[in-house]
Amino acid sequence: MRFNSVGFALSVGMALIVVLIGFTLLSAAGLAGFAAEDVARANEPEAPKTHQVSATRTSVPSPAASPEEAAAIAAGDALFKGNCAQCHAVNEQVVGPALAGISKRRPLSWLLPWVKNSSKVVASGDDYAVALFNKFNKQQMPSFSLSDKEIAAIVAYIKSEEGRSEPMPPADAIASAQ
Ligand code: HEC
């Protein structure tokens, strides 16, 4: 039985080798599989980029005065000429200061009480008002019984006139252009 036992040992050895080779092959295949997967993933096309909405972007035109604004400016023009123009111009100093840029110098919350009763604002100790009053030789600006809306309209008119050297077309021309 010596041959048999040798044969048995050989066949066990062979079987081990086969198993080993098989295992090696399998694991190699597995590795290759992983590697192939990685490569495939790496080569995957990137998720399509969301396209810029440039096609749908609308260019916003700089807004021309809306009908409401134009109406306010026209009303402000008339109010300014009737109440303020004897002492004020927009772009030059007359009796009172040039009013160009007033909406940037002072908020409406200051302008409303000022136009309604400037001496009250001066008397309140408001630094800006006191300094201005002194600069203009303590000359009192008259009080006006204008509504907030009317004063805002005057401010809109002043804004529209800022930096303008030529007189504006008459207000009714603007109104009829609507
Ligand atoms: C009789 C002249 C007179 C009239 C009319 C007059 N103002 Fe004045 N205004 C002045 C004087 C003078 C000042 C300078 C401050 C002071 O001395 O009280 C002034 C100052 C101002 C200021 C501040 C200016 C700044 O640069 O900060 C505003 C705003 C203003 N006036 C608006 C008006 C408006 C609006 C009207 C018409 C509704 C008007 N004023 C009518 C004389 C006048």
From TrEMBL:
Pfam families in the cross-refs: Cytochrom_C
Q: Which InterPro entries match?
A: Cyt_c-like_dom, Cyt_c-like_dom_sf, Cytochrome_c-type_DH
**Taxonomic superkingdom:** Bacteria
Q: Which Gene3D superfamilies match?
A: Cytochrome c-like domain
**Cytochrome c domain spans which residues?**
71-162
Indicate whether Hydrolase appears among the record's keywords.
no
- This protein's UniProt keywords: Heme, Iron, Metal-binding
Which PROSITE patterns does the record associate with it?
Answer: CYTC (PS51007)
Classification via PANTHER family? ALCOHOL DEHYDROGENASE CYTOCHROME C SUBUNIT (PTHR35008:SF8), BLL4482 PROTEIN-RELATED (PTHR35008)
Q: What name is this protein filed under? A: C-type cytochrome
